[in-house]
TrEMBL record:
Record Pfam families: BPD_transp_1
Entry's transmembrane regions: 37-57, 88-107, 119-141, 147-166, 187-217, 237-258
Membrane topology value: Multi-pass membrane protein
Domain of life per record: Bacteria
Similarity annotation: Belongs to the binding-protein-dependent transport system permease family.
Keywords: Cell membrane, Membrane, Transmembrane, Transmembrane helix, Transport
Gene Ontology annotations of biological process type: transmembrane transport
Main location: membrane
Domain ABC transmembrane type-1: 81-265
Keyword Cell membrane set for record: yes
Stated name of the protein: ABC transmembrane type-1 domain-containing protein
Location within or outside the cell: Cell membrane
Signal peptide location: none
Amino acid sequence: MGAVMAVIGRTEDGVRSSPVASALVWLAGIAREYGSLVLVLICWELVARLSLVPPYLMPPFNEVLVRIWAEIGDGTLWVNLLDTLRRTLVGFGIAVVAGVAIGLLLARSSTAEWLVGPLVSIGFPLPKIVFLPIFILWFGVYDTSKVIMIVCDAIFPVITATVAGAQGVERQIIWSARNLGAGERDLLWTIILPAAAPQILSGIEVSLPIALIVAVITEMMLGGTGIGAAMMESWRFAESTGVFAGLLELSIIGFLLIRSMNALRRRLLRWHAEAQADLV
């Protein structure tokens, strides 16, 4: 271990590294970031293999991987994955566009604040899932109800983040821009949106996993296709391997979505002080 740390130390000090040293640095970074996850998976496999828990309650991890591989081979995974992602991203996209628009309107218009503000204040803490029976009555049990449910849940973090970001812009900057002849549209695109972008993107980052969660919940409740629906079908037949396979698949999807959103945030804010601080 001392020799490994010495190699890593020389690499970090700027000494030219060999491929072996680079690999060791990479492995050390992986262990530092995902060591706890690997430990959980090892414990899962040991608990199942030692029969500490009945197999129908917790199948071995390797059997779950075999199930996922089988679903990849017969195409089941791709059908369910694409349906879940389609509903998630459509609902999320609508929530982002509508949420930013409503948030800017609330921040810039006292009339809109008077009309819509109380609805946002009441709707934010309300469990939006209570509207699902109404949406089923109005739109049926298919994709329309699921997407609308996603929008209803995912839109509120975007609205509140946009309002906070837009209202947090320094008034002196706005006054200076107005004195230079900037109109309302110029203020919006060149001053308010860039200044509020970090907070808006934070709200969007919160909204994305909410959209995925609601998509899976509606699939579980309404059936059809999707990973959530496949998990419920496995549950009905007491196939715990299928349930845990869906859990693992959703964990990977959520991880990749969050990482993609983080990368997009860094790219969009590469001009911002936040991005410059990350480079230091």
